Amino acid sequence: FKILRAQEVELPKRVNIVYLNRIANYQTSTQYSQREITNSKENLTIDLPIVFSDQLAKNIADSKLFTDWVARLEYEFSLPTKYAPLDPSDVVTVHVSGVHHRMRII
Fold first, then answer.
1. Which tens digit of pLDDT belongs to each residue from 32-51?
2. 72-81 long-range contacts, CB within 8 A, separation 24+
């Protein structure tokens, strides 16, 4: 069982979502989400050629930033064949040394 944790400086401090804004005559707009307390200086910009409302684009930025930070832990382990029915995206809990690790299979 191996746990890998991404370094904080590799994770985004800010996520920008660039999208088409119907209210602004389909011009590009940007919504962002930013983590205030971090040593990271990384900015991630995602260009989406899709029409969104400002609030939906903001929700996407918030979600992406949160997901990147929550998913900074990676687990590596082997399972017996009885667990073969598990699929990617299944959520499992693994107990190791009295600690419960909840994770999503990728």
1. 999 999 999 999 999 999 99
2. 72/5, 72/6, 72/11, 73/3, 73/4, 73/5, 73/6, 73/103, 74/3, 74/4, 74/5, 74/6, 75/1, 75/2, 75/3, 75/4, 75/101, 75/103, 76/1, 76/2, 76/3, 76/4, 77/1, 77/2
Cα→Cα distances 32→11, 12, 42, 49, Å: 15, 12, 13, 16
For residue range 16-30, what is the model confidence (pLDDT) as tens digits? 999 999 999 999 999
**Residues paired with 27 in a beta bridge:** 21
pTM score of the predicted model: 0.78
